[in-house]
Amino acid sequence: MNIHEYQGKALLKSFGAPVAEGVPVFKASEAEAAAQALPGPLYVVKSQIHAGGRGKGKFKELGADAKGGVRLAKSVAEVVANANEMLGHTLVTKQTGPAGKQVNRLYIEDGADIERELYLSILVDRSVGRIAFVVSTEGGMDIEGVAHDTPEKIITVAIDPEKGVTAEDVKALNDALKLDGDAARDGGTLFPILYKAFVEKDMSLLEVNPLIVMKDGHLRVLDAKVSFDNNALFRHPDVLELRDTSEEDEKEIEASKYDLAYVALDGNIGCMVNGAGLAMATMDIIKLYGAEPANFLDVGGGASKEKVTAAFKIITRDPAVKGILINIFGGIMKCDIIAEGVIAAVKEVGLKVPLVVRLEGTNAELGKKIINDSGLNVVSADDLDDAAKKIVAAVKG
Ligand code: ADP
Ligand code: MG
Questions:
Q1: Which residues span the domain enclosing 36?
Q2: Any idea which residues carry the catalytic annotation?
Q3: Together in a domain, 105 and 128
Protein backbone atom coordinates (compact mmCIF):
# COMPACT_ATOMS: atom_id res chain seq x y z
CA MET A 1 0.00 0.00 0.00
CA ASN A 2 1.21 3.47 -0.90
CA ILE A 3 0.44 6.78 0.78
CA HIS A 4 0.73 10.42 -0.24
CA GLU A 5 3.84 12.52 0.30
CA TYR A 6 2.19 14.70 2.96
CA GLN A 7 1.09 11.61 4.90
CA GLY A 8 4.56 10.10 4.64
CA LYS A 9 6.11 13.30 5.91
CA ALA A 10 3.72 13.51 8.86
CA LEU A 11 4.62 9.93 9.73
CA LEU A 12 8.38 10.59 9.49
CA LYS A 13 7.95 13.77 11.53
CA SER A 14 6.29 11.74 14.29
CA PHE A 15 9.56 9.76 14.48
CA GLY A 16 11.54 13.00 14.70
CA ALA A 17 12.71 13.50 11.11
CA PRO A 18 13.22 17.09 9.92
CA VAL A 19 10.49 18.01 7.43
CA ALA A 20 9.21 21.39 6.28
CA GLU A 21 6.01 22.88 7.57
CA GLY A 22 3.12 22.20 5.24
CA VAL A 23 -0.66 22.00 4.95
CA PRO A 24 -2.65 19.54 2.80
CA VAL A 25 -5.41 21.09 0.71
CA PHE A 26 -8.44 19.31 -0.78
CA LYS A 27 -10.29 22.30 -2.28
CA ALA A 28 -8.91 25.42 -3.98
CA SER A 29 -10.80 27.53 -1.44
CA GLU A 30 -8.51 26.13 1.30
CA ALA A 31 -5.28 27.22 -0.40
CA GLU A 32 -5.20 30.80 0.86
CA ALA A 33 -5.54 29.87 4.54
CA ALA A 34 -2.97 27.09 4.05
CA ALA A 35 -0.40 29.49 2.63
CA GLN A 36 -1.11 32.10 5.31
CA ALA A 37 -0.34 29.51 7.97
CA LEU A 38 3.21 29.16 6.57
CA PRO A 39 6.12 31.53 7.19
CA GLY A 40 6.82 32.42 3.50
CA PRO A 41 8.19 34.20 1.52
CA LEU A 42 8.75 31.09 -0.61
CA TYR A 43 6.02 28.45 -0.94
CA VAL A 44 5.78 25.22 -2.90
CA VAL A 45 2.52 23.84 -4.28
CA LYS A 46 2.84 20.08 -4.66
CA SER A 47 0.42 17.71 -6.41
CA GLN A 48 -0.41 14.73 -4.23
CA ILE A 49 -0.73 11.60 -6.36
CA HIS A 50 0.64 8.12 -5.81
CA ALA A 51 3.39 8.55 -8.40
CA GLY A 52 6.77 10.23 -8.61
CA GLY A 53 8.22 12.48 -11.29
CA ARG A 54 5.65 15.16 -10.47
CA GLY A 55 8.09 18.04 -10.83
CA LYS A 56 8.78 17.15 -14.45
CA GLY A 57 5.19 16.03 -15.09
CA LYS A 58 2.75 17.77 -17.45
CA PHE A 59 -0.91 18.56 -16.93
CA LYS A 60 -2.97 16.98 -19.69
CA GLU A 61 -5.64 19.63 -19.94
CA LEU A 62 -3.29 22.62 -19.67
CA GLY A 63 -1.11 23.92 -22.49
CA ALA A 64 2.35 22.52 -23.27
CA ASP A 65 4.06 25.48 -21.59
CA ALA A 66 2.06 25.20 -18.36
CA LYS A 67 4.23 24.44 -15.33
CA GLY A 68 4.60 20.95 -13.84
CA GLY A 69 3.13 19.22 -10.79
CA VAL A 70 5.47 20.83 -8.21
CA ARG A 71 5.50 24.63 -8.36
CA LEU A 72 7.33 27.36 -6.53
CA ALA A 73 5.24 30.37 -5.50
CA LYS A 74 6.50 33.68 -4.17
CA SER A 75 3.31 34.96 -2.56
CA VAL A 76 0.03 33.75 -1.11
CA ALA A 77 -1.71 35.01 -4.25
CA GLU A 78 0.60 32.87 -6.43
CA VAL A 79 -0.14 29.83 -4.26
CA VAL A 80 -3.86 30.39 -4.78
CA ALA A 81 -3.49 30.86 -8.55
CA ASN A 82 -1.46 27.66 -8.86
CA ALA A 83 -3.87 25.70 -6.67
CA ASN A 84 -6.77 26.80 -8.86
CA GLU A 85 -4.92 25.71 -11.98
CA MET A 86 -3.73 22.35 -10.65
CA LEU A 87 -6.61 20.86 -8.67
CA GLY A 88 -8.91 18.57 -10.62
CA HIS A 89 -6.52 18.30 -13.55
CA THR A 90 -4.69 15.21 -14.79
CA LEU A 91 -0.97 15.02 -14.22
CA VAL A 92 1.08 12.77 -16.51
CA THR A 93 4.52 11.75 -15.22
CA LYS A 94 7.07 9.08 -16.10
CA GLN A 95 5.48 6.91 -13.43
CA THR A 96 1.74 7.43 -14.10
CA GLY A 97 1.66 6.04 -17.64
CA PRO A 98 0.02 8.02 -20.46
CA ALA A 99 -3.40 8.09 -18.76
CA GLY A 100 -2.01 10.21 -15.90
CA LYS A 101 -3.62 10.74 -12.52
CA GLN A 102 -6.14 13.32 -11.43
CA VAL A 103 -4.81 15.70 -8.79
CA ASN A 104 -7.38 15.80 -5.99
CA ARG A 105 -5.09 16.91 -3.19
CA LEU A 106 -2.30 19.46 -2.93
CA TYR A 107 0.34 19.99 -0.32
CA ILE A 108 1.31 23.60 0.31
CA GLU A 109 4.77 23.58 1.79
CA ASP A 110 7.32 26.03 3.11
CA GLY A 111 9.97 26.65 0.45
CA ALA A 112 13.48 25.51 1.34
CA ASP A 113 16.81 27.16 0.47
CA ILE A 114 18.50 24.25 -1.25
CA GLU A 115 22.27 23.85 -1.35
CA ARG A 116 22.42 20.23 -2.56
CA GLU A 117 19.86 17.56 -3.49
CA LEU A 118 20.73 14.02 -2.37
CA TYR A 119 19.06 10.65 -2.86
CA LEU A 120 18.26 8.30 0.02
CA SER A 121 16.06 5.25 0.13
CA ILE A 122 15.58 2.28 2.43
CA LEU A 123 14.43 -1.04 1.07
CA VAL A 124 14.58 -4.76 1.67
CA ASP A 125 17.69 -5.97 -0.14
CA ARG A 126 16.91 -9.60 -0.89
CA SER A 127 20.38 -10.29 -2.25
CA VAL A 128 21.82 -9.88 1.26
CA GLY A 129 18.66 -10.61 3.23
CA ARG A 130 18.84 -7.27 5.00
CA ILE A 131 17.31 -3.85 5.08
CA ALA A 132 19.61 -1.52 3.19
CA PHE A 133 20.09 2.18 2.62
CA VAL A 134 20.65 3.17 -0.99
CA VAL A 135 22.15 6.65 -1.32
CA SER A 136 23.63 8.98 -3.89
CA THR A 137 24.93 12.52 -4.03
CA GLU A 138 23.05 12.84 -7.33
CA GLY A 139 19.55 13.30 -5.90
CA GLY A 140 16.67 15.26 -7.37
CA MET A 141 14.53 14.56 -10.32
CA ASP A 142 16.51 12.05 -12.38
CA ILE A 143 17.74 9.20 -10.21
CA GLU A 144 16.71 6.69 -12.90
CA GLY A 145 19.15 8.40 -15.27
CA VAL A 146 21.92 8.26 -12.65
CA ALA A 147 21.27 4.54 -12.09
CA HIS A 148 21.51 3.97 -15.82
CA ASP A 149 24.47 6.18 -16.77
CA THR A 150 26.64 6.30 -13.63
CA PRO A 151 25.64 3.37 -11.39
CA GLU A 152 28.87 3.78 -9.40
CA LYS A 153 27.35 6.94 -7.93
CA ILE A 154 24.73 4.87 -6.14
CA ILE A 155 25.95 3.32 -2.89
CA THR A 156 24.28 0.61 -0.83
CA VAL A 157 24.79 0.19 2.93
CA ALA A 158 23.13 -2.93 4.36
CA ILE A 159 22.13 -2.87 8.04
CA ASP A 160 22.74 -5.72 10.47
CA PRO A 161 19.32 -6.43 12.04
CA GLU A 162 20.90 -7.34 15.39
CA LYS A 163 22.79 -4.06 15.68
CA GLY A 164 20.58 -1.59 13.82
CA VAL A 165 22.22 1.52 12.35
CA THR A 166 25.72 1.62 13.87
CA ALA A 167 28.23 4.48 14.06
CA GLU A 168 30.11 2.81 11.18
CA ASP A 169 26.93 2.75 9.09
CA VAL A 170 26.36 6.45 9.81
CA LYS A 171 29.93 7.20 8.76
CA ALA A 172 29.56 5.16 5.57
CA LEU A 173 26.36 7.01 4.70
CA ASN A 174 27.79 10.43 5.56
CA ASP A 175 30.86 9.68 3.44
CA ALA A 176 28.78 8.42 0.54
CA LEU A 177 26.68 11.59 0.66
CA LYS A 178 29.73 13.82 1.28
CA LEU A 179 28.19 15.27 4.43
CA ASP A 180 30.21 17.13 7.05
CA GLY A 181 29.67 19.55 9.94
CA ASP A 182 26.02 20.12 10.88
CA ALA A 183 24.81 17.99 7.97
CA ALA A 184 26.87 14.98 9.13
CA ARG A 185 25.60 15.45 12.69
CA ASP A 186 22.03 15.62 11.32
CA GLY A 187 22.74 12.40 9.41
CA GLY A 188 23.75 10.75 12.68
CA THR A 189 20.26 11.31 14.05
CA LEU A 190 18.27 11.08 10.81
CA PHE A 191 19.52 7.71 9.50
CA PRO A 192 18.57 5.75 12.65
CA ILE A 193 15.20 7.57 12.76
CA LEU A 194 14.38 6.56 9.19
CA TYR A 195 15.48 2.99 9.85
CA LYS A 196 13.31 2.84 12.97
CA ALA A 197 10.28 4.17 11.08
CA PHE A 198 10.88 1.62 8.31
CA VAL A 199 11.06 -1.32 10.70
CA GLU A 200 8.32 -0.30 13.13
CA LYS A 201 5.81 0.50 10.41
CA ASP A 202 6.66 -2.52 8.24
CA MET A 203 7.51 -0.41 5.22
CA SER A 204 8.64 -2.05 2.00
CA LEU A 205 10.11 1.15 0.58
CA LEU A 206 11.00 4.53 1.99
CA GLU A 207 12.36 6.90 -0.62
CA VAL A 208 13.52 10.41 0.17
CA ASN A 209 14.38 12.09 -3.12
CA PRO A 210 15.58 14.65 -2.55
CA LEU A 211 17.06 14.70 0.89
CA ILE A 212 18.50 18.20 0.92
CA VAL A 213 21.37 20.04 2.50
CA MET A 214 20.01 23.52 3.10
CA LYS A 215 21.96 26.76 2.77
CA ASP A 216 22.19 26.82 6.59
CA GLY A 217 24.00 23.46 6.46
CA HIS A 218 21.20 21.30 7.90
CA LEU A 219 19.43 18.29 6.40
CA ARG A 220 15.74 18.18 5.48
CA VAL A 221 13.46 15.51 4.05
CA LEU A 222 12.02 17.26 0.97
CA ASP A 223 10.09 14.43 -0.68
CA ALA A 224 8.81 11.18 0.78
CA LYS A 225 7.55 8.10 -0.96
CA VAL A 226 6.41 5.42 1.46
CA SER A 227 5.11 1.94 0.61
CA PHE A 228 3.99 -0.60 3.20
CA ASP A 229 4.13 -4.37 3.19
CA ASN A 230 0.48 -5.37 2.64
CA ASN A 231 1.00 -8.59 4.57
CA ALA A 232 1.73 -6.60 7.73
CA LEU A 233 -1.05 -4.01 7.44
CA PHE A 234 -3.24 -5.93 9.86
CA ARG A 235 -1.04 -4.74 12.69
CA HIS A 236 -1.05 -1.08 11.63
CA PRO A 237 -4.62 0.27 11.77
CA ASP A 238 -3.16 3.80 11.87
CA VAL A 239 -1.47 3.19 8.52
CA LEU A 240 -4.59 1.65 6.98
CA GLU A 241 -6.44 4.88 7.76
CA LEU A 242 -4.10 6.66 5.34
CA ARG A 243 -5.25 4.54 2.41
CA ASP A 244 -6.61 6.58 -0.52
CA THR A 245 -8.54 4.11 -2.66
CA SER A 246 -9.14 6.78 -5.32
CA GLU A 247 -5.44 6.36 -6.17
CA GLU A 248 -5.73 2.61 -6.62
CA ASP A 249 -6.88 0.54 -9.57
CA GLU A 250 -10.58 -0.34 -9.07
CA LYS A 251 -9.95 -3.88 -10.18
CA GLU A 252 -7.14 -4.25 -7.65
CA ILE A 253 -9.40 -2.98 -4.85
CA GLU A 254 -12.08 -5.51 -5.82
CA ALA A 255 -9.44 -8.26 -5.97
CA SER A 256 -8.15 -7.37 -2.51
CA LYS A 257 -11.67 -7.88 -1.10
CA TYR A 258 -11.47 -11.50 -2.24
CA ASP A 259 -7.87 -11.89 -1.18
CA LEU A 260 -6.76 -12.43 -4.79
CA ALA A 261 -3.22 -11.54 -5.84
CA TYR A 262 -4.08 -9.32 -8.81
CA VAL A 263 -1.98 -6.69 -10.58
CA ALA A 264 -3.41 -4.75 -13.53
CA LEU A 265 -1.08 -4.52 -16.56
CA ASP A 266 -1.25 -2.86 -19.97
CA GLY A 267 -1.77 -5.82 -22.35
CA ASN A 268 -4.94 -7.42 -23.70
CA ILE A 269 -4.84 -11.08 -22.61
CA GLY A 270 -6.53 -11.63 -19.26
CA CYS A 271 -4.88 -14.39 -17.22
CA MET A 272 -6.31 -16.57 -14.48
CA VAL A 273 -3.67 -18.85 -12.99
CA ASN A 274 -3.01 -20.64 -9.73
CA GLY A 275 0.35 -20.09 -8.12
CA ALA A 276 2.53 -16.99 -8.49
CA GLY A 277 5.31 -18.88 -10.29
CA LEU A 278 2.95 -20.36 -12.85
CA ALA A 279 1.32 -16.93 -13.26
CA MET A 280 4.72 -15.40 -14.03
CA ALA A 281 5.53 -18.19 -16.47
CA THR A 282 2.15 -17.71 -18.15
CA MET A 283 2.84 -14.00 -18.63
CA ASP A 284 6.29 -14.80 -20.01
CA ILE A 285 4.99 -17.27 -22.54
CA ILE A 286 2.27 -14.88 -23.72
CA LYS A 287 5.02 -12.36 -24.39
CA LEU A 288 7.14 -15.02 -26.08
CA TYR A 289 4.37 -15.55 -28.61
CA GLY A 290 4.10 -11.84 -29.27
CA ALA A 291 1.23 -10.58 -27.12
CA GLU A 292 0.98 -8.82 -23.74
CA PRO A 293 -0.80 -9.92 -20.54
CA ALA A 294 -3.57 -7.66 -19.22
CA ASN A 295 -2.93 -8.71 -15.65
CA PHE A 296 -1.13 -10.89 -13.18
CA LEU A 297 -3.60 -13.02 -11.25
CA ASP A 298 -2.91 -15.80 -8.80
CA VAL A 299 -6.17 -17.30 -7.49
CA GLY A 300 -4.17 -19.09 -4.82
CA GLY A 301 -4.16 -22.60 -3.51
CA GLY A 302 -7.53 -23.55 -2.03
CA ALA A 303 -9.71 -21.01 -3.83
CA SER A 304 -13.48 -21.38 -3.52
CA LYS A 305 -15.92 -21.26 -6.41
CA GLU A 306 -16.92 -17.74 -5.24
CA LYS A 307 -13.33 -16.57 -5.38
CA VAL A 308 -12.87 -17.95 -8.89
CA THR A 309 -16.11 -16.29 -9.98
CA ALA A 310 -14.95 -12.95 -8.57
CA ALA A 311 -11.59 -13.33 -10.30
CA PHE A 312 -13.20 -14.05 -13.65
CA LYS A 313 -15.49 -11.05 -13.30
CA ILE A 314 -12.56 -8.77 -12.51
CA ILE A 315 -10.77 -9.94 -15.65
CA THR A 316 -13.79 -9.50 -17.93
CA ARG A 317 -14.54 -6.07 -16.50
CA ASP A 318 -11.30 -4.72 -18.00
CA PRO A 319 -12.28 -3.25 -21.41
CA ALA A 320 -8.72 -3.81 -22.69
CA VAL A 321 -9.11 -7.60 -22.37
CA LYS A 322 -9.56 -9.15 -25.83
CA GLY A 323 -9.06 -12.76 -24.78
CA ILE A 324 -8.71 -14.84 -21.61
CA LEU A 325 -6.31 -17.60 -20.76
CA ILE A 326 -7.04 -19.86 -17.81
CA ASN A 327 -4.05 -21.92 -16.84
CA ILE A 328 -4.52 -24.20 -13.85
CA PHE A 329 -2.23 -26.83 -12.51
CA GLY A 330 -4.49 -28.48 -9.96
CA GLY A 331 -2.76 -29.51 -6.77
CA ILE A 332 -4.61 -28.32 -3.70
CA MET A 333 -6.71 -26.31 -6.14
CA LYS A 334 -9.11 -28.67 -7.89
CA CYS A 335 -9.79 -28.19 -11.60
CA ASP A 336 -13.53 -28.84 -11.20
CA ILE A 337 -13.82 -25.92 -8.75
CA ILE A 338 -12.18 -23.67 -11.32
CA ALA A 339 -14.55 -24.92 -14.01
CA GLU A 340 -17.60 -24.31 -11.85
CA GLY A 341 -16.44 -20.84 -10.88
CA VAL A 342 -15.83 -19.87 -14.49
CA ILE A 343 -19.24 -21.14 -15.60
CA ALA A 344 -20.99 -19.31 -12.76
CA ALA A 345 -19.22 -16.09 -13.73
CA VAL A 346 -19.99 -16.46 -17.43
CA LYS A 347 -23.67 -17.02 -16.61
CA GLU A 348 -23.67 -13.70 -14.74
CA VAL A 349 -21.59 -11.50 -16.98
CA GLY A 350 -21.49 -13.32 -20.33
CA LEU A 351 -18.44 -14.10 -22.41
CA LYS A 352 -17.66 -11.69 -25.21
CA VAL A 353 -14.04 -12.63 -25.91
CA PRO A 354 -12.25 -15.91 -26.77
CA LEU A 355 -11.44 -18.14 -23.79
CA VAL A 356 -8.68 -20.71 -23.80
CA VAL A 357 -8.53 -23.15 -20.90
CA ARG A 358 -5.71 -25.43 -19.89
CA LEU A 359 -6.49 -27.70 -16.96
CA GLU A 360 -3.97 -30.16 -15.59
CA GLY A 361 -3.60 -32.07 -12.33
CA THR A 362 -6.20 -32.82 -9.66
CA ASN A 363 -9.65 -33.46 -11.16
CA ALA A 364 -8.54 -32.18 -14.59
CA GLU A 365 -10.79 -34.61 -16.46
CA LEU A 366 -13.80 -33.63 -14.36
CA GLY A 367 -13.04 -29.95 -14.91
CA LYS A 368 -12.80 -30.43 -18.68
CA LYS A 369 -16.07 -32.35 -18.70
CA ILE A 370 -17.85 -29.60 -16.76
CA ILE A 371 -16.65 -27.01 -19.26
CA ASN A 372 -17.44 -29.16 -22.32
CA ASP A 373 -20.94 -29.93 -21.03
CA SER A 374 -21.64 -26.28 -20.31
CA GLY A 375 -21.98 -25.39 -23.97
CA LEU A 376 -19.62 -22.46 -23.49
CA ASN A 377 -17.50 -21.41 -26.43
CA VAL A 378 -14.20 -22.50 -24.91
CA VAL A 379 -11.03 -23.63 -26.66
CA SER A 380 -9.24 -26.25 -24.65
CA ALA A 381 -5.48 -26.60 -24.71
CA ASP A 382 -3.19 -29.54 -24.00
CA ASP A 383 -0.29 -27.76 -22.37
CA LEU A 384 1.00 -24.31 -21.54
CA ASP A 385 2.70 -23.82 -24.90
CA ASP A 386 -0.40 -24.85 -26.83
CA ALA A 387 -2.57 -22.63 -24.62
CA ALA A 388 -0.42 -19.56 -25.16
CA LYS A 389 -0.27 -20.05 -28.94
CA LYS A 390 -4.05 -20.48 -29.12
CA ILE A 391 -4.94 -17.40 -27.08
CA VAL A 392 -2.42 -15.20 -28.90
CA ALA A 393 -3.78 -16.41 -32.26
CA ALA A 394 -7.37 -15.77 -31.11
CA VAL A 395 -6.59 -12.26 -29.95
CA LYS A 396 -4.67 -11.34 -33.08
CA GLY A 397 -7.64 -12.60 -35.10
P1 ADP B 1 8.83 14.62 -7.61
O2 ADP B 1 9.92 13.72 -7.15
O3 ADP B 1 7.52 13.92 -7.72
O4 ADP B 1 9.18 15.38 -8.85
P5 ADP B 1 9.61 16.39 -5.38
O6 ADP B 1 8.87 16.54 -4.11
O7 ADP B 1 10.88 15.63 -5.32
O8 ADP B 1 8.60 15.76 -6.46
O9 ADP B 1 9.86 17.83 -5.97
C10 ADP B 1 10.57 18.07 -7.17
C11 ADP B 1 11.62 19.14 -6.96
O12 ADP B 1 10.99 20.32 -6.52
C13 ADP B 1 12.65 18.79 -5.90
O14 ADP B 1 13.71 18.05 -6.44
C15 ADP B 1 13.09 20.18 -5.44
O16 ADP B 1 14.06 20.72 -6.32
C17 ADP B 1 11.81 21.01 -5.60
N18 ADP B 1 11.10 21.13 -4.30
C19 ADP B 1 10.20 20.26 -3.78
N20 ADP B 1 9.76 20.65 -2.57
C21 ADP B 1 10.39 21.81 -2.30
C22 ADP B 1 10.39 22.72 -1.19
N23 ADP B 1 9.61 22.53 -0.10
N24 ADP B 1 11.20 23.81 -1.27
C25 ADP B 1 11.97 24.04 -2.35
N26 ADP B 1 12.02 23.23 -3.42
C27 ADP B 1 11.25 22.13 -3.40
MG1 MG C 1 11.11 13.55 -5.63
A1: 21-110
A2: 119, 207
A3: no
Is 84 part of any domain?
yes
- Is there a domain that residue 224 lies in? yes
Angle (nearest 5°) at CA 299 between 298 and 300 = 90
Final residue before a domain boundary, out of 208, 238, 268: 238
Domain annotation covers residue 151 = yes
Atom 6, ligand 1: which residue's CA is nearest? 223
- CATH number, domain of 220, equals 3.30.470.20
H/E run at residue 207: strand 203-214
* Same domain, residue pair 309 and 378: yes
Q: What residues form DSSP beta bridges with 158?
A: 132
Cut 0.85: pTM above it = no
Neighbouring C-alpha atoms within 13 Å toward the C-beta of 121:
19
Cis peptide before 41 (omega within 30 of 0): yes
How many domains in the chain? 3
Cα angle value 68/73/78 (rounded, 5°) = 100
Cα 41 to ligand 2 centroid, rounded to whole Å: 22
Residue 11 belongs to a domain: no
Q: What is the 3-state secondary structure (H, E, C) of 40-97?
A: CCCEEEEECCCCCCCCCCEECCCCCCCCCCEEEECCHHHHHHHHHHHCCCEEECCCCC
How far from each other are the two terminal CA atoms of the chain, in whole angstroms?
A: 38
Half-sphere exposure in the Cβ direction for 80 (13 Å, CA): 8
Compute CA distances 78 → 30, 42, 61, 69, 82, whole Å.
14, 10, 20, 15, 6
Look up the CATH number of the domain holding residue 306.
3.40.50.261
Give yes or no: residues 257 and 136 share one domain.
no
Q: Was 333 annotated as part of a binding site?
A: yes
Which domain-ending residue is among 110, 125, 141?
110
Q: Whose CA is nearest to atom 23 of ligand 1?
A: 111
Q: Is residue 140 lining ligand 1, measured as CB closer than 6 Å? A: yes
CB 376 within 8 A of CB 356: no
pLDDT per 10-residue tile (average), the chain, 397 residues: 97 98 97 96 97 95 92 98 97 91 97 97 96 96 88 96 98 98 98 98 98 98 96 96 91 88 93 93 96 94 82 92 93 87 87 92 91 87 93 92
